[in-house]
Design goal:
531 residues, Arc Repressor Mutant, subunit A, mainly alpha, Rossmann fold
Length: 531
Amino acid sequence: MRSVAMESNAWPFAEARKVLKRLGGQAPDQGYVLFETGYGPSGLPHIGTFGEVARTTMVRRAFEVLSDIPTKLVAFSDDMDGLRRVPDNIPNRDMVAKYLELPLTAIPDPFGEYDSFGAHNNARLRAFLDTFGFDYEFVSATECYKSGRFDDVKMKVLERYDAVMAVILPTLGEERRATYSPFLPICPWTGRVLQVPVIERDLEKGTFVYRDADNQTYEVKVRGADCKLQWKVDWAMRWVGLGVDYEMSGKDLIDSVTLSAKICRILGGRPPEGMTYELFLDENGEKISKSRGNGLAVEEWLAYAPPESLTLYMYNSPRKAKRLHFDVIPRCVDDYLGHLEKFAAEGDPAKRLQNPVFHIHGGPPPGPESHLTYSILLNLASVCNTEDKAVLWGFITRYDAQATPESAPFLDRLVGTAIAYYRDFVKPGKTYRAPSAMEKTALEDLAETLAALPAGADGEAIQFEVYEVGKRHEFEDLRAWFRALYEILLGQSQGPRMGSFFALYGLPETLTLIKRALAGEDLAENADTAA
């Protein structure tokens, strides 16, 4: 597999080969390759945070196919950062507003559950990473600063202060240049993270002096937690202090990556390899934000689809901006199921390594449990007008006698999430229409054709006949024929592969549905429990 992976053009393997080349075949001094993801806990974790960990894990697993060098993934939380604005999606916002500019781990938890706001958001991060079974080590900036883990690198910032300033100052406006310092002291009285200029440095003592707004001067130790570093310098310091070999980041951080890489070299380190990914957009085409809470939350996606589908969304085209809204879920689930089927049938190792499910599962995936798609289950719930899993399972078991909730647990989860999606997104917008005269004739033809099929006709045989009926009538094209079936029988403009759906629903039930539509009955009142 290793030789095949070395030639694979799947993007995780391409990224992993960059890390392999960086190492020159030798393990780092610390004995393992360190992959890092960063989290700013100023707001609740959002789906973009998950995406970065998922994608980094894919690169890590690809590297492990290419090399026997041990690896580690660190999820780093910059929880010592000062809170600059109150997030829109938290309770007790007025209370939190009193603590602006304090480190996140020094602000009371507005949810009343943890010792601090930072601790709350860190716990939320770990909880949903654990939900997906990620193998990672959580690292807190506050703990690193307090323990002295970063002291040696912070001292290098003090020693090479002028070189660091020479990198940063040209990127700032005139007013900001006058007050900028790579060091942010923590006010001993208010606990706030201060942005004040450094007026003196003492390398021997390991201190710097700043002047506050009242023109008072104070000496601060660089070692320990009496100060932290500005963002871009802090990022570079982290790369050096932790020995980071790989970290990806969003398009909005391209300039920050460039500057931090320069500072990393000044501090005697080597910037990590990485990839720039595009941003996620909400339904309005705006960037999703953890402070605004727009876009989808991980929990919301999981209410309507299995986690593997979300991981597929993260795998697909990471360098392209993508809408992240509820309407992308059904297609993403069916794409995952399709890749799963293809992997099981594929014998070529190179194509298997190219298949997204290899990277979603970090190796060969489980076999597919059934050939039923999410869209078919959605439409089965729709035509039955039911939110009862037992009703859908009645049809499924009749379609495949070997399938039960116990023998097919993934399918059972799929049934539950499809019903939830139908209830919240499909059912409210269902609008049935009456067939035109020409469509009535076609539906009558379809009913006669399906009635002539043998009872055990499979989806392919039924689909062929549906196509043939459409060709015999005056539709503009076959898409218009299928759109008519969706709108008349299902009450929506899009739908599943009708042959497969009719096979699952049952030919007798399908004939009854068509006859009811021809009779002008209200299909929205259908509550079919014939299974």
